[in-house]
Amino acid sequence: MNIVVCVKQVPDTATERKLRSDDKTLDRDAVDGVVNELDEYAVEEALKLKEAHGGEVTVLTMGPGKATETIRKALAMGADKAVHLLDDALHGSDALGTSYAMAQALKKIGFDLVILGSESTDARTGVLPAMLAERLGAPQLTLANKVEIDGTSIKIQRITDYGFDRVEASLPAVVSVVEKINEPRYPSFKGIMAAKKKPVETLGVADAEIDAGQVGLDSSWSQVVDFAQAPPRAAGTVVKDEGDGGAKVAEFLASKKFI
Amino acid sequence: MSEILVLVEQVDGEVKKVTLELLTLARGLGTPAAVWAGPGYTPDAKAKLAEYGAEKIYVAGSEEITGYVVGPKAELLAQLVAGKSAAAVLVAATAEGKEVAGRLAVKIDSGVITDAVGLGDGFVAEQSIFGGGVNVQSKVSRGTPIVAVRPNSTAPEAAAGAGAEEEVSVSLSDAAKSARIVERVKQEKGARPELTEAAIVVSGGRGVGSAENFSVIEGLADALGAAVGASRAATDAGWYPHQFQVGQTGKTVSPQLYIAAGISGAIQHRAGMQTAKTIVAINKDPEAPIFELADYGIVGDLHQVVPQLTEEVDKRK
Ligand SMILES: Cc1cc2nc3c(=O)[nH]c(=O)nc-3n(C[C@H](O)[C@H](O)[C@H](O)COP(=O)(O)OP(=O)(O)OC[C@H]3O[C@@H](n4cnc5c(N)ncnc54)[C@H](O)[C@@H]3O)c2cc1C
Ligand SMILES: Cc1cc2nc3c(=O)[nH]c(=O)nc-3n(C[C@H](O)[C@H](O)[C@H](O)COP(=O)(O)OP(=O)(O)OC[C@H]3O[C@@H](n4cnc5c(N)ncnc54)[C@H](O)[C@@H]3O)c2cc1C
């Protein structure tokens, strides 16, 4: 089975993230990049499926040069090879542009299964898996906390507000995973060494047959008009419990008309 | 004025509060038109939608619409956008709402803004990003604006609309019917409001101490008519189900009131609750970062403070 797992490099959430004043995009140079956490669950799921059903796991990343760190991490976990979609023309792409570029790359790579995290920690739009399913004409098996494959049929549990749905489809398909579907493995020393020798193919827009007029900041379907640092929250009142803490909170809630 | 399509969110035929919020927002921008996707439409639902300003109600009652993952709803909306020359589409920024928005965006070649916390003239949306650190104004620059709005972004206000019904039939493509829902499993959640929708959320963290002790959090939530949330430390420990996790890898909530008990206030937790209007923290450590956000904080043992608070709330009812 040919599994492609989409992995995004995101700024470490523990650092202060900023937008650039020049083009209002995320300042990716100013911060340390890490693997988007949910994508580690996606890689783990891909590796487990490969272990059970055979095949190959390819990592797909779209991002600037330094996103190779993220690719190496996924390879160190055990993925076989990687494709890095890298081109200055892609900078500033919104969700539509990103999904278009990634769909083109996926068509070029070929796949039985595409696995993504369900949301990134930087933009947090959560739309990419659904957009890819739409663009690729493949079943959308998103928000999965369980995936089972039998031949060419695939079943997932899709988490919902009321519990979960059982969903069935046929491969090829697009899957997104939620936290707690599995426990991502740590790369072993051997894995880290092996990752250095695994093939990483770099694709530019022309290589992936991406129309440069449909990607990048200027072609985006959405734009940031303006932004500002959020004003700090006004300092609140903090009191020590002297046996009447609960009653005090109740008074506060009453003063705000919550009770 | 052009129509603003509002995708209705409902549970068992009952219209969710977020839909009333979206209708309220839509009234300021054009002619609100509610879109009912799937079976379960009732006269009560009609009355509710009209009460909050729906001039039109498009009813696509076919079972097929809810029988497959997301695709049919996107196709229904795409058909209506084209057929009614809609000016914009509003959906709730829930996980599924955003997926519908995403597929629709591809179908009609239009931009999408997710997680708006406000929406004004020219469909300029407010977003609160990076865990509440930065406020952004953004807009769709190509196509018909599609905006996913967070629940609790605006207060629902009644203002009667005509509520003129129109039945809609869609012929779904094979692609829309490729991920079949074979069973819906409803996990017991009792009478509590849904986490992302609730006006009040009471969350417990590692300080709660055990699964059994979450009854203390639930007790307060029930007294307040609130939803229950949990930090990742609590869901990781198995004390509370994962679907109630608030934060970066859990749900994002934006309630009127958020009460955090035994939660330290890690940046990843804050990412999911920082836009709450009022924040109350109960923590025994005076240095806990959650106090930096709190409008009101009690330094103390939650096992003392929370039951006392519950009792006081009950007394004042
Ligand atoms: C703060 C902020 C807000 C934004 N808001 C909007 C908006 O409202 N509308 C809009 O159109 N665009 C928006 N963008 C642009 C958006 O970041 C990009 O389009 C992005 O490439 C895709 O969005 P995402 O990271 O939210 O993906 P999500 O849909 O949240 O990510 C889901 C999964 O897709 C995969 N994935 C995502 N990106 C990549 C990648 N580059 N390489 C490999 N895999 C990937 C990962 O597996 C990830 O877990 C915003 C950007 C920022 C920084
Ligand atoms: C990539 C990533 C994603 C993450 N996503 C999330 C997420 O979505 N949601 C999330 O919540 N976390 C998330 N985390 C984890 C986050 O960093 C914290 O570890 C977590 O929020 C801590 O939970 P906590 O506050 O309950 O526990 P702790 O940090 O251990 O805090 C417990 C608090 O309870 C107090 N306390 C203890 N006993 C009592 C008592 N009897 N009465 C009163 N107070 C008491 C303590 O003083 C302490 O402040 C993520 C982490 C990473 C790295």
UniProtKB/TrEMBL annotation, chain A:
InterPro entries: ETF_a/b_N, ETF_b, ETF_beta_N, Rossmann-like_a/b/a_fold. This is Electron transfer flavoprotein subunit beta. It comes from Nonomuraea corallina. Belongs to the ETF beta-subunit/FixA family. Heterodimer of an alpha and a beta subunit. Its cofactor is FAD. Keywords: Electron transport, Transport. The electron transfer flavoprotein serves as a specific electron acceptor for other dehydrogenases. It transfers the electrons to the main respiratory chain via ETF-ubiquinone oxidoreductase (ETF dehydrogenase). Residues 23-212 form the Electron transfer flavoprotein alpha/beta-subunit N-terminal domain.
From TrEMBL, chain B:
Keywords: Electron transport, FAD, Flavoprotein, Transport. Its cofactor is FAD. It comes from the Bacteria. Residues 4-185 form the Electron transfer flavoprotein alpha/beta-subunit N-terminal domain. Transmembrane segments: none annotated. It holds the Pfam family ETF. Heterodimer of an alpha and a beta subunit. Belongs to the ETF alpha-subunit/FixB family. The electron transfer flavoprotein serves as a specific electron acceptor for other dehydrogenases. It transfers the electrons to the main respiratory chain via ETF-ubiquinone oxidoreductase (ETF dehydrogenase). This is Electron transfer flavoprotein subunit alpha/FixB family protein. It comes from Nonomuraea corallina.
